[in-house]
Each structure stands twice: as C-alpha cells, then as structure tokens.
Known about the structure:
Radius of gyration: 19 Å
Strand content: under 5%
Number of helices: 8
Structural class: mainly alpha
Largest sheet: none
Order of helices and strands: HHHHHHHH
Distance between the termini: 32 Å
Shape: globular
Amino acid sequence: MEFAWKAALSGICLGGVAGWIIASFTFQLPVRWNHFMHIEALECLGITDNAVPPPPLLILRKKVGLRSTVIVLLCVVETILAITAKGVGPSTIPLLVFAYGLTAAAIVDHEHMILPDSIVQPLLWSGLVYVAILVPADLQSHVLGAAVGYCLLRWLPSIGEGDAKLCAAAGAWIGLSALPLFLMIGGGLGVASALIYFWRRRKSAACPFGPPLALAALTIMTADALGLSTALFG
C-alpha cells in the first residue's frame, strides 16, 4: 500500500510536469512552423519584410484548458504505470522517454496531420542508443525492427512518410519480435479510427494514423512492463 501511494504521488508530480511541457511544446511547435514557412515564402518572392515578428518562444502556456488537462492526465497515467511496473529508478527513464515521445507525436498528428522529424527521429535514435548501451546483444533485432517497420509502411497507399518513420521508431524500441503484434494492434485501431472519422463527417476524410500507432506501441510497452506479454526489448 505504501508503494502504491508513492507511485501515485511520483506519477502525479512527474507526469504533471511532463504533460504540461508536452502540451505547451505541441501547441507552439506548429506556430513556429507557420512563422518560418511565412519567412521562406517571402524570401522566395524576393520580399524583405522587417515587420515580421520573431517566432514565439517554446515556453509554458499560462492558460489552462481542456486540451492541456487531457494531456497532463494522460502523462500522469503513463508515469504511474511505468513506476508501478519498474519502480523509481534508472530503468523507468527509458519507458517514460518512449511514452512521452509517442504522446507528443500523436498529439501533433491528430491536430495537424503531420509527424515532425523533430519528434520522431530523436525517438528512433534514443531507442537504438538505449538498446546498444544496456542490451547490446539485442541490437540487431531492434535495428531490424526499425528497418522492417519503416519498409512495411512506407510503400502502402495513403500512408505518409511520417507514419512509416513512427513505425520505425516503435520498431527500434520494441524489437523485431514484437513488430507483428504492434502492426496488428495499430492496424485494428487505425481501421476503428477511420470508421469514427467517417461516421462523424458522413464522408470519406483523411485520418491521422499516428495516434493508433502510438497507442499500439504504448499498449505493448505497458503490457510488457506489467509482465503481461513477451519482453519488450528483445
């Protein structure tokens, strides 16, 4: 019982801070994209506009809304699950990096239909570096997981390159052996998400595939961390 209270308290504190940072980062990152695209468009036209304000700083938002609250609660739940499974220690950090990175990627894709390299690529390389340092014997499986995951999704119709890169990042963390289960769960969630989009709009519409992929990877991570599936990192 004492550990449960410590896990809950640690999860609320750490997850709350992480969620607030992710909510601010994912809100302001697209604003910076628009700013730099505007500057590049003016430069292509040969226009120099000194009145263009500088890009906004990636600082914490002062306004608390439903969006920020949901993201914070999600990060709190992820943190509590990670601490419950691994305890408070170095072994928990990789799980939190994985979970927070997937959360940020899913949010941006849901809101803007894009998976930025600034989120996905660090998630990919951090997974490979983690495996190379702590379990080097499994590195080949995780490199193959990243490569196969990218190739399987890259050439599918209606699948963007960002989705393939996110699949590669997930493969780098979970390894080749867990990739089929990941794709099966992600595909099922993707179909369900597309049906929901169609039902809400009553017509065919573009549907982000990043959130289903992120949720599938989080499901496998959580199940493994709690001892309910095959090893995540092998």
